[in-house]
UniProtKB/TrEMBL annotation:
Span of domain HTH araC/xylS-type: 179-277
Example GO molecular function: DNA-binding transcription factor activity
Record keywords: DNA-binding, Transcription, Transcription regulation
InterPro entries reported for this sequence: AraC-bd, Homeodomain-like_sf, HTH-like, HTH_AraC, RmlC-like_jellyroll
Flavoprotein found in the keyword field: no
SUPFAM superfamilies: Homeodomain-like, Regulatory protein AraC
Name listed for the protein in its UniProt record: AraC family transcriptional regulator
CDD domains according to UniProt: cupin_RmlC-like
Record carries keyword ATP-binding: no
Alphabetical list of SMART domains matching this protein: HTH_ARAC (SM00342)
Pfam families in the cross-refs: AraC_binding, HTH_18
Amino acid sequence: MLEMFSFDAAVPLHLFEYGLKRERTEQHWHSFFEIGYCLEGRGTFFIGEETVVVEPGTLMLFPPYEPHIAMAEAEGCRFAFVYFSESLFYPEDRYLLRPFARAAIWNEPEWRSHRPSASERPGPLLAAMLAEYESKPSAYGPLLRSSMLTLAVWLYRSEEARYGRREWRERSDALERLRPALEAVAERFREPFGLREAAEALSLSESRTRHLFVEGVGKRFKAYLTFVRVQEAKRLLATSDLSVTDVYLACGFQSAAPFYRSFRQLVGFNPQQYRERYMGEG
C-alpha cells in the first residue's frame, strides 16, 4: 500500500465524516475501495480528467487505484466516507464489488429512479453504520458487514439496471482481469518494470495487456506506472529527509529528467516546491 493507513482489527472497514476544503490539492488514490456520500453543501470531485459536481444525496464509488480529489464550493460541504477492503466480503460474495470496477456517481434523483423503495436509501443506512462504528458496541463487526452487504446488493442491482447486463459486465470484468497486473505494479514499481512484466502477471500478450489497461483504469500502462511512482515520490518528499535524487531512485525512476518532467505534469510543482509547500502547510 502506498498510503499510510490500516483498518480496525475487528473489521476491514473505516467510516468517518469529513468537511471538504475549499482549496484543490493533488489527486491521490488508495489500494482499498471507497464510498463517499454528500451529507450537505456543494462540492466538486476531480476524478482523473473528469470533473463532477456533487450535492446532498450524491453517492460516489471509487475502486482501488482510481485517482481523485475533492474540494468544497462553499463552507459547510460535508461527506460521509467509507473505506473498506475486499476481505470485508466472503469470497462467494465478492461479485458484488463489480459496481466498483470504475468510479461511479449516483445523484439522488438517479438513485430514486432505480431504487424507488424508501427503505433503500443510502443516507440513513450510512448514518446508522457511522454511529455503530463510532460507539463500537459488542459484536459491531458482524453488524457492519451485514450493512455493507445490504448496500452492496443495492448498488449491484442499480448498476445492472443502469447499463444493462451485457455492457455492465464488460465494464466490470476489465478491471477484475487487470487486478493481478495492478497488484504487481504496486509491489514492484520501485524496480525496473515494464509492459512485458505486466503482461506476464496476466499471462497475456503485451498488446492485449496494453488494451486492458485502457479498458480497466482508463490509462495507458506507462502513464499508470508513472502515476504510481509519482504518488510514492510525493509521500517520500512529505515524510522523509531523503534528497530528491534518492527519492526518484527509490520510486523506480532511472534519471532526473523524466522524474522532474512527470512530477511537474502530474503535480503542478517541481519536487522542491512540493516539499516546501507541504512543510509550510504542516
